[in-house]
Amino acid sequence: MVTQSERTTSPKLIMGKPAPSLEVKTLSGNVWSLAEQPTDKYTMIVFYRGLHCPFCQEYIANVEQKLAEFNQLDVNVIAISGDSLERAQEFKAIKNIEHLTIGLGLTQDDMHRWGLYISKGHFESEPAIFSEPATFIIKPDGRLYYANIGTHPFARPDLGILLRGLDYIVHHDYPERGTEW
């Protein structure tokens, strides 16, 4: 693992390039792998801070409420945090998450590889280390299409606008943006 003193930059992911690898355990007991997602559907990954975050609880509950709309557009959705199994189970119970796949155990190396902002816990309810929120959309061929990476819990993509955009993208083969470095 790279130490903070050795790390001078965080990776900037380029849209249109292959998404970083990602495998996490899920509450169902399975391992979810980005590489094994259907090649005829988009994948949306919603990284969230974890159980301790009331903004995350509200946002992920909203994702659950709109999950059928994402699925109608052939977009598979997973919400992932660094929470332990017990904390992820509590999160699911508190917000009555029934259908959304919940990934857990996101490692600091995963957080870094995806270019997520990483925070140190400052309060008793917070884990020692956790990622700040981010949303990624990956094309069926595994290339990055969209990224929204946050530094705090209170600014996230509006799900209604995201759905309208995805509806256009899926039906009009809209190109990636942010492809130039």
Biggest pleated-sheet summary = 7 strands, mixed
**Percent of residues in helical segments?**
25-40%
Through-space gap between termini: 27 Å
From the spread of the alpha carbons, the general shape counts as globular
Taking all Cα atoms into account, the compactness measure Rg is 16 Å
What's the CATH topology label? Glutaredoxin
Counting DSSP H or I runs of 4 or more residues, the number of helices is 4
Mean pLDDT: 93
* Low-confidence spans: none
How many strand elements?
9
Strand numbers in spatial order across the main sheet:
2-1-5-4-3-8-9
Structural domain count: 1
Give the CATH architecture.
3-Layer(aba) Sandwich
Protein structure class: alpha+beta
Q: Can you tell me the CATH superfamily?
A: Glutaredoxin
Tell me, what is the CATH class?
Alpha Beta
- Provide the β-strand percentage band: 15-25%
Task: Give me the strand/helix succession.
Answer: EEEHEHEHEEEEH
